[in-house]
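Data availability (excerpt). The following record was deposited with the supplementary files.
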Amino acid sequence: MKPKLCFLLLLCPFFGVYAQEKILSARPATAESGIAIGQPVPDIVIRNVSGLDVAGHTFTAVPLSAFKGKLLILDFWATWCAPCIASFPKMKMLQEKYRNDLQVILVNNESEVRAAGFLEKRRKEHGEAFAAVLADTLLNKIFPHRTVPHYVWIGRDGKVLAITGEEELEEAKLLKAFSGESGAFVNKKNIDPALPLFSSADFPADSLVRYSLLTKGRVSGLASGTQFRKAKLSGVVIGRAFTNTDFFHLYGTVGRVLQRAMGQRFSDKQIRYIGADSSGFLHDSYNYEFVVPERFSGKLYPMMLDDLNTYSPYVAAIETEPTECLILERFGIAHLPRDGESSARSDNGAVGQGSLNLKNVPLEALADHLENLSWNRVPVINKTGISGRISIRVDETDNLEKINAGLRPYGLRLRRAKKKMEVLVIRDRMNEQIKQLK
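Predicted structure:
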């Protein structure tokens, strides 16, 4: 039996990776029609190609039939898509290792200047020299998709072998694709995130009263993130959908909304997991949607917490307990620039890596930055009493001593303390049930 773990979790605010609580890798809805798996690809001519060198000849336009006899992977990507870029090194390795049997072509429909500049920088920094179609208008129509990364695998015979996400980009799958095996692939679903999760176009969304769904496992075709559901007429938020999200971020979002609605600052460092499997809690992917009637919109998050506590593998509650923390406070007398005022330090010289330079921001922004420094493991509580906006620069942030040296000219400091504070305590459901039976 695995030992119990009890610790304060140490992750950035919700969606540092997921970014500002919206689905970043989702594209506008496109037509559902397109070339299906098993169908032949028409011998179209792809244009505006860069970096394609075949038998010593460079092409800017080439028919797809030129690659017959090779496995062709069309890699639909975007400069803002982190998973797309993260897959480039693996794609580079595969292209170089199997250059006689494989042709990878990146496909981008952003501006040519933006995409070409991005790829050139990657070439200089990482040695990635891919063939690429820039400012594409044709391939995106033939192979419609809502999310990137998006990979279209075209077999040696010119037929679509698979359409996948980045999780299928493995050497073992590549070897099977060379021999025309398609059964090994988990193909990507073209899911419309605007609809209730996993419903069809026939779903009567306009007459939806209540909706709750929870599935375990990552679903290719859905971006990792969250989006709001709103009432059609009033625009009031009546629900929320989370896709390919772990329970740390899911419960953290609910806890943050509930606490901040009560005027309490809440961060991910106020989440405490007490259970047997921290890996599952932190990394297992789930898809969850919860929608309530409009008359209950004000109770959305308390009801969501009850729903999760009923059907998820965990039970969570806000509890008050002594917690190690850092207090951000004022001491002495010093001028703290506010409301766009400049300070001698804030604009004096270039800002180096590992420094902190904030201009015209609320004090809470400073507390957030301090809390998320790599060495910090505890919450930061703002006790300065300062309202309005401030400007501040700290040149070195490697440890508490250096931070305080930089804060001192502004009459600020961070002080270690242990205070009673509200934390979101999450326990394994099974352990809770056993306790109740005793």
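Summary of structural features: Confidence is low (pLDDT under 50) at residues 1-31, 342-352.
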